[in-house]
Amino acid sequence: MKWKKLGKIFDPTEHKLPNDCEEFAQSPQALVFDDFVRIYFSTRQKDKNGKFLSHVAFVDFDKDFKNIQKISSQPVIDLGKLGCYDEHGIFPFNVVRNNDKILGYISGWTRRVSVSIETSIGVSVSSNNGNAFKRVGDGPILTSSLDEPFLVGDPFVAVFNGIYYMWYIYGTKWIQENEKDTPERIYKIGYATSKDGISWQKQNIKLIDNRLNANECQALPSVIYHQEKYHMMFCYREACDFRKNSRNAYRIGYAYSKDLINWVRDDENIGIELSKNDWDSEMMCYPQIFHCNDKVYLLYNGNKFGRYGFGLAVLEE
Amino acid sequence: MFKWKKLGRVFNPQDIKNVDWLNEFAQAPSVLIFDKFVRVYFSCRPRPDTNGQYVSYTGYVDLNRSNLFEIVNIAKQPILPLGGKGTFDEFGIYPTSVIRNDDEVLAYYAGWTRCESVPFNVAIGMAKSKNDGKTFEKPGSGPVLSYSLNEPFILSGPKIRKFNNQWYLYYIAGRKWIPNNGRPEPVYKIRMAISNDGINWTKKDRDLIESKVEADEAQASPDVFFYNNKYHMFFCYRYSLNFRGKEGGYRIGYASSDDLVNWERNDSKVGIDISDEGWDSEMIAYPHVFELDGKVYMFYLGNQVGRYGFGLAELEDYKQ
User: Most exposed: A149, A168, B49, B146, by fewest CB within 10 Å?
Assistant: First the structure.
């Protein structure tokens, strides 16, 4: 593959956002309409204790991605109720057209005591073209299980040949070199299938080979069908010292498949890399690939996990 | 109509000295019957940590089969260690329900973790024993029954049963957390799931037992047994708030069913209530009913939900 970078297209600090959110526009996810492209993202509010809450917002672009038509003025979806899996944040939020409705898959965050967080995946529905979403239920549709003990999150749903596929991530362990260190999490990409988008069957197979080492963290899978193959882009990083040390930070990875089951990891042919001095010079993360204007686009975050926005690239070859 | 005769307290954990993990509480009794003794599993707690917080372990006492008031053995260690960092059962294993399966003993238990906005969350795990229930091992580090659309948190109180080659799991699922001025209290209801292998479960996704004292009634310990051509469920229930004393505390309720799925509640048939005085004068909770040598018994907890152990009652009379 060969991508042409189109630069950063949205900076949250330059706009007024709902919920008094000021920074972060993470995990951009496109929904293409006839005359605009809506990009959902997760932005952050500080709660009364100074901790972050992630909220979903969107920005509507012209289809050439040069002009902003509108930014959501209301919350797209409320956070979950007291004690629910999505009480402290929704990040990412994955949207999929489904007949005359739009499904919104929630990666919900809740705070824990011995480790910082736990996540699960829920579902919501919009009947007004994706302006607002309502939960189908208070609980999740995909969560911890015998062999995926925690941190089920990062859903990406697509329908191929009448079957709903969800790629997601699940935690394998929390690691701590010393008792005083903050525990860090390891997670891998998994997938589940469904007939209705609500009730899912986990497939429980190891999907994507590690490139770095056994503790590689793999996140945010995104899949499209293009030129007779399925293509997955995701991000990966080292388990520790990944926030400030660019060498350990997120990069975008790539795999392809002919059958949606067996994936060949092929990062060498990804065709996009860190810039030298720009907004994406230290890390690239949270990719989403999508079709628009008969082209294939890639949305992604750069330095500081998207604190200052997201950018776009277009597939050239 | 049942009529139970109370036989008294069988086990008080405070009589046991110098066992760190078994300092107080003996909650949610569940039996495994052997030729010469009856093993009673229960959950207990070491002293609380410096923040006043508890963890729970499951252990057991073995009672002489011909005299259930004679303790012949006490577990040397908890049957299962707590879960690893970040897992669902890192801070407690309570309650536990056991069942024989060929040469193995299976334990289904509720695993506890601690949360920030609410004090805890709970999911149901499973473990297997190959040494007659002395110690157990988990097949995986995650739960076998976790949260879902209409069961958003607190999956707890499992009771494992096998009827007609089908596995049944009766349990409770959280419905809501009442904010209660910064000290949230959960509401939970009795539910069930069915399985062919004991690992993969299909939830019925509905409440089994009508609420009685209030809409937010909390229900627990759905203990099902088959007797005289009918399925019987003894469970406990309480008010959602101010339940730690006599007024709002746990009582034992009763329901019956012909098909294990549709249950008719009729607490007037339960035939057991709190005592005028003594260890079970404020509440009775966590019933477990079993047949032994031609008699039917109930283990249950008394005041402070088993802080001072469990007692025994014997069925004196039953009329449909």
Answer: B49
User: Cβ distance B198 to B106 under 8 Å?
Assistant: yes
Contact state of A173 with B113 under an 8 Å Cβ cutoff:
no
State the nearest Cα–Cα gap between B141 and chain A, in angstroms: 6
- B116, B177, B178, B201: best mutation site toward chain A, by most A Cβ within 10 Å? B116
SS3 B87: coil
- The verdict on whether omega for the bond into residue B143 sits within 30 degrees of 0, i.e. cis, is no
Q: A130 CA to chain B: closest CA distance, Å?
A: 21
- Compute the Cα dihedral for B174, B179, B184, B187 and give only its sign: negative
Q: Pick the residue of B55, B82, B112, B115 with the most A CBs within 10 A to test the interface with A by mutation.
A: B115
Tokens of A294: 């008969």
Is the full-model pTM beyond 0.90? yes
Give the separation between CA B274 and CA B283, rounded to whole angstroms. 6
- Answer whether B199 touches A (CB < 8 Å): yes
DSSP β-ladder status, A310-315 and A3-10: antiparallel
Residue A156 has a CB neighbour count (10 Å cut-off) of 26
Could you tell me the two tokens for B91?
């801070």
Tell me: the pLDDT tens digits for A288-306?
A: 999 999 999 999 999 999 9
For residues B59 and B21, give the distance between their C-alpha atoms in angstroms, rounded to a whole number.
9
Chain B CB contacts of A113 below 8 Å: 113-116
The ipTM (two decimal places) reads 0.94
- Mapping DSSP onto H, E and C, the string for chain A reads CCEEEEEEEECHHHCCCHHHCCEEEEEEEEEECCCCEEEEEEEEEECCCCCEEEEEEEEEECCCCCCEEEECCCCCCCCCCCCCCCCCEEEEEEEEEECCEEEEEEEEEEEECCCCEEEEEEEEEECCCCCCCEECCCCCCECCECCECEEEEEEEEEEECCEEEEEEEEEEEEECCCCCCCCEEEEEEEEEEECCCCCEEECCCCCCCCCCCCCCEEEEEEEEEECCEEEEEEEEECCCCCCCCHHHCCEEEEEEECCCCCCEECHHHCCCCCCCCCCCCCCCEEEEEEEECCEEEEEEECHHHHCCCEEEEEECC
Query: Which band of pLDDT confidence, cut at 50, 70 and 90, is reported for residue B245?
Result: confident
Burial code (b: 16+ CB inside 10 Å, e: under 16) for A46-84 equals eeeeeebbbbbbbbbbeeebeebeeebeebbbbbbeebb
Residue A149 is nearest to which of B88, B91, B184, comparing CB atoms? B88
Rg (CA), chain B: 18
pLDDT in tens, B51-60: 889 999 999 9
Asked if B140 lies within 8 A of A137 by C-beta distance, the reply is: no
3 state SS of B190: strand
Residue A178 in this model has a pLDDT that exceeds 90: no
B198 interfaces chain A, CB cutoff of 8 Å: no
Structure tokens at B300: 């249950």
Closest CA to A79 of A52, A56, A111: A56
Integer Cα distance of A140 and B152 in angstroms: 7
CB within 8 Å: A144 and B88: yes
Q: Do B114 and A183 touch (CB under 8 A)?
A: no
